[in-house]
Specification:
Layout: E1 6-10, E2 36-40, E3 42-43, E4 51-52, H1 54-66, E5 69-71, H2 74-79, E6 89-96, E7 105-107, E8 117-119, H3 124-134, E9 143-146, H4 163-172, E10 176-179, H5 192-209, E11 217-219, H6 229-233, E12 234-237, E13 240-243, E14 246-252, E15 268-272, H7 275-287, E16 301-305, H8 314-317, E17 321-323
Parallel strand pairs: 1-16, 1-17, 2-6, 2-15, 3-4, 5-6, 6-9, 9-10, 11-14, 14-15
Antiparallel strand pairs: 7-8, 12-13
Helix pairs in contact: 1-3
Length: 325
């Protein structure tokens, strides 16, 4: 895919126009800028180290939307297929551990339709769906790193009778499911056989609910790489094969552009979704807009600030180049 892209080199001055209230179009394109991959855990009350309240999660989405960020799928980022309107920036949402507040069904209490199950408007999926309806330009994407074999309440969102319905809903509504091991195993502590069993078994369990579904990405439990990176990337156990195109860490800050020379899909950093961390990074990009990935609105070109072509990855730099100054 990347070899088919043209590269446009533009002399762009990125001012501080993106401070609070500025319109996304005020930003010049810079597709070598960095990308925020946000890492959420519980969506519940009260607010805590690993918990974001529903109210604060809504506020996160609103703040991102107002500053010109738009949701993209993690797989599209990894593949270098970021298609966004000009002046907007990608942001990626990830959710670890399949806790109940991420995706919950409740029964209607108004007596209509015989008490049908509906998505809880206070869970993460419910909040994302409502926000997408109110702000259709924001996008619709997130990756859920599930734990199929964990003890309750983290086993596939803690409604066993609805597990199939939930996983199939995610896949059919534009979300992605990722590997987080079978039961949150700290992979660096285990031998090869256990690592491979954890990763293959997690996929096999999910395929019981979504036949044929294959994980494309792995989020490392506790950020722990196995002793050999290859064990995490691909392999097999008990007749099930797995292959991950990207491996995500638990920290590290904003990620490089997928077109950047330093992009490494097997070592992708994330920003933990804590109030302090989210505020810090949004503020950082407000004050340093030249560091932020900004789309040129044309999926067939990569627009970079003049003089920065040397930072492009090898696969991109070998593509057809068009210089416009």
């Amino acid at each position: 895919m990347r070899a088919a892209l043209a590269i446009v080199l533009l002399g762009v001055t990125l001012g501080a126009a993106v401070l609070a209230g500025a319109q996304p179009s005020a930003l010049g394109p810079n597709e070598l800028g960095r990308v925020m991959i946000l890492e959420y855990h519980k969506v519940d009350t009260p607010e805590g180290r690993w918990t974001r309240t529903p109210e604060n999660f809504r506020r996160d989405l609103t703040r991102l939307w107002q500053r010109g960020y738009r949701l993209v799928a993690l797989s599209d980022y990894v593949d270098g297929k970021i298609a966004l309107p000009a002046g907007t920036s990608p942001v990626i949402l990830t959710f670890d551990d399949s806790s109940p507040g991420q995706f919950r069904y409740i029964q209607r209490s108004d007596g209509q339709r015989g008490g049908d199950w509906v998505i809880d408007p206070e869970c993460a999926v419910g909040i994302l769906e409502a926000f997408a309806r109110e702000h259709p330009d924001f996008g619709h994407a997130a990756t859920f790193y599930v734990l199929p074999g964990a003890n309750p309440p983290n086993r596939l969102f803690n409604q066993p009778e609805l597990a199939t319905r939930k996983l199939q809903y995610l896949v059919s509504h534009g979300y992605e499911i990722g590997n987080h091991s079978l039961w949150h195993a700290e992979l660096g502590r285990y031998p090869e056989s256990t690592v491979r069993d954890q990763l293959a078994s997690a996929q096999e369990w999910v395929q019981r609910h979504v036949p044929g579904y294959r994980f494309r990405t792995l989020a490392l439990p506790l950020g722990s790489y196995p002793r050999e990176l290859a064990w995490a990337v691909s392999g097999q156990a008990k007749g099930m094969t797995y292959k991950h195109d990207a491996v995500l860490m638990v920290a590290g800050g904003a990620a490089p552009s997928p077109y950047a020379r330093r992009f490494d899909a097997l070592h992708l950093p994330r920003i933990q979704a804590l109030e302090k961390e989210i505020d810090s990074w949004i503020t950082y990009f407000d004050r340093n807009p030249g560091e932020r990935y900004v789309s040129d609105g044309d999926a067939g070109t990569i627009t970079v600030v003049s003089g920065s072509a040397g930072k492009l990855g090898a696969a991109v730099r070998s593509a057809r180049v068009i210089e416009r100054r």
